[in-house]
Amino acid sequence: MGKMNIMWGYVILSYGLFWGLVLALCGTASMVFHASPLTMRILSDITAWSPTFAVLILYRKLKPNTKFIDFLKNCFHGKLKISLFLISGLIMLGGTFSTVGIVSLLEGKPFKNYFSLVGYSFIVSFFLSLFSGPTGEELGWRGYLRPEMNRKYGFLKGSIIQGIVWAFWHTLLWFIDSEFLDWRIIIYILSNVIVISSIALIMNIFLEIEENLLYSIWIHFCFNLPYSFLKVGISYYAVMCIIFPILACALYFYYQRIIMKKDEEKNNSNNENVIV
């Protein structure tokens, strides 16, 4: 099987595993055993590991010339910088809270009305958020798929395609785990695709700076955690699909300026070293 075909084979398997586990595992637990909300949340976290399960199943075909331990080392070899964690975290949390703030102004309601502490405690929500998508998905989407798509399509186009693949992986949840099942689902789906694609680009920029999946895990976590406490309507998703693309584009153009500046400095340094 060609490299291109195995890459898309990985995507298909990730989709199949996730959708199959959601229907079989979560569906059975809910309809047959009437599982508690906490049990359902834990099972949902397990299904989120499908991209990693797919890497493990297909690894010999995905990376036939690389030992798995070396693949892992390469995924986490970049330097850990507090500044990058702070900036990336602020972008994610800032995007979420600014969206809530705008919706609060538009609807004329207090900011605090869009949050609810009813449900799990903060510590439980913390760990449920951490051990779902952030730790379960990133080895597959960013560890394996990101470099492959970047090589095939280039950084920007590859990032957008990754985002779209990642977004539509959630398709099943849009219909079985959403309150928006009328005309609002159109806005909800568009928002998911646009926002997730924007986050994919943001993640990839930080991973270009330092190749370490802890950054994408952190970004994913900072985006997911507030949803444990958010109490929002469709207007939130409408505003969010404007805010996050703005953040992603601003970061991308800033990143391009940094690259251009480094290239200019490199060219100037080479010119100074030329012997006349």
UniProtKB/TrEMBL annotation:
Source species: Anaeromyces robustus
Pfam families associated with the record: Rce1-like
UniProt keywords, alphabetically: Hydrolase, Membrane, Protease, Transmembrane, Transmembrane helix
CAAX prenyl protease 2/Lysostaphin resistance protein A-like domain: residues covered: 122-225
One of the protein's GO biological processes: CAAX-box protein maturation
The keyword Membrane belongs to this UniProt entry's keyword annotation: yes
Lineage: Eukaryota, Fungi, Fungi incertae sedis, Chytridiomycota, Chytridiomycota incertae sedis
GO molecular function: endopeptidase activity
Name of protein: CAAX protease self-immunity
